[in-house]
Write a structure and sequence with these properties.
Layout (H helix, E strand, L loop, with lengths): L3 H14 L5 H30 L2 H21 L4 H5 L3
Helix pairs in contact: 1-3, 2-3
Bound molecules: phosphoribosyl ATP.
EC number: 3.6.1.31
Subcellular location: Cytoplasm
Pfam families: PRA-PH
């Protein structure tokens, strides 16, 4: 179990050390266009899960959307704190 901020710290470390087999390294290397498509894809899956699937499936899809949002923030050099100031 990890929090939003703990996951972001982990992703920053992946970006820095670039370990073999990291999903995050692959996602960062794929570029902003591909990262944006993943955000949209996961947002759509959250919507479908909310309408038709279980609470557990919705929570899992939401986790993937949060992950994809973090990847795109990281790629642009932003952090969750840049977002929090608008909440
Ligand atoms: N939370 C996530 C996470 N959520 C989603 N994903 C990625 O999203 C994929 C699932 O999304 P899709 O449904 O689009 O599946 P897919 O189309 O088969 O995936 P792709 O072929 O497009 O990669 C997973 O296979 C992962 O690649 C994640 N990848 C990593 N994390 C966490 O990020 C941290 C760093 O992970 P690594 O960079 O892999 O070390 C770890 O704590 C991981 O748990």
């Amino acid at each position: 179990m990890k929090t939003f901020d703990e996951l972001f710290t982990e992703l920053q470390e992946r970006a820095r050390s670039r370990p073999e087999g990291s999903s995050t390294v692959s996602a960062l290397d794929a570029g902003i266009h591909a990262q944006g498509k993943k955000v949209l894809e996961e947002a759509g899956e959250v919507w479908i899960a909310a309408e038709y699937e279980s609470d557990e499936q919705l929570a899992e899809e939401a986790s993937q959307l949060l992950y994809r949002l973090q990847v795109i923030l990281l790629a642009r050099g932003l952090s969750p704190h840049d977002v929090y100031r608008y909440l």
